[in-house]
Predict the structure.
Amino acid sequence: MEQKPARIRILDAAHELMLTVGLARATTKEIARAADCSEAALYKYFTSKEELFVRVLTERLPQLAPLLRSLAAEPGQGTLEENLTEIARQAALFYEQSFPIAASLYAETQLKRRHDDALRQMGAGPHMPIEGLDAYLRAERTAGRVRPDADTFAAASLLLGACAQRAFAYEATETGALPEVEDFARRLARTLLGGISVADAAARPAPWSA
């Protein structure tokens, strides 16, 4: 059986190790070994572990950033509820899969500071989805589908913050189960719309209704 290209093997190995031992403990040496290549070969494709982390997020996890960019580029397409529901769905899945990877960083302050500095230099970081959703909501505000006085940054922070919370806040409940993603996304979108949409709120069903 033909071996996968080295770049794909490295990404696969990085994804698996970051999930199982966490980003802080997944060294480039271990990733290269798991990918069946040298550490020097790894650096032919990725300049740093931070870049490798970003590529794992963008190429192995749900595609939240491209969705936000495409919606911001063409406001007025679909309905706000449909679009926000899909954003919430993708975001919930993205945070569910990325939280176990990045959580270990928060236990090592100096490592997290270096990691944040590297992401800043690459123009990446956890603030980017909020900025992307804010840009989309501002585009919809210009198109007349979001209220002129709506605080789009706060709305973006609320929606994505709730999606991030879903990734870890429910494990201590009696069942330990995350809220079902489709229902969670739909209810979240409807609730947010009650605060920002120009549409008559009374014409929409309550967020907790079927």
